[in-house]
Amino acid sequence: MATESDNVTNSEALQHGLLRHTLASWRFILLFSLPPMVWVLFVAPSGVLRAIIALLCAVVWFSCWRLWLDERYFSLINTQNNELAGSALCFIWRRELLKTLTLAERQSGALQQCRKTLFLVVVLWAVWLALLM
């Protein structure tokens, strides 16, 4: 018979797996930045607008790197080692806040980064398509 704790453990495992798969979407998000960058490299005339699109592509790529990093971190971090992981991340990134975050706060921050990255891709495409018209 399944107990209440089994349901909690299964729920946490499911949430953890779904989060990792969601963060793995950085690959597809990165692909959406390629057409504007190809336009910048081969078609766009020199100027400020070309630089703006290139800068937006760079910001999207940085955000994708952050998603990739979060995906890798969550392959290692779980409820049992969250405090130890916080100390290690604090050492790496030199941010005291990382020591005190709960696993739920870390997950929430990663999802917030994912939404921000999606928004940046939408902005990139909106600006790029406006320039094409």
Helix % is over 70%
Uncertain regions spanning at least 5 consecutive residues = none
Assembly status: single chain
Order of helices and strands: HHHHHH
DSSP, total strands: 0
If you compute it from the alpha carbons, what radius of gyration comes out, rounded to the nearest whole angstrom? 19 Å
Main beta-sheet strand count, sense and barrel state: none
Structural class of the helix and strand makeup? mainly alpha
State which percent range the strand residues make up: under 5%
Chain-averaged pLDDT: 92
Number of helices: 6
Q: Judging from the principal axes of the Cα atoms, what is the shape?
A: elongated
User: Distance between the terminal alpha carbons, to the nearest Å?
Assistant: 63 Å
What does this structure look like?
- This protein has helices spanning 4-23, 26-42, 48-74, 82-93, 97-100, 103-132.
- With 133 residues, it is an all-alpha fold.
- Helix 2 (26-42) packs antiparallel against helix 3 and helix 3 (48-74) packs antiparallel against helix 6.
- It is elongated.
- The N and C termini lie far apart (63 Å).
- The model has no long low-confidence stretch (mean pLDDT 92).
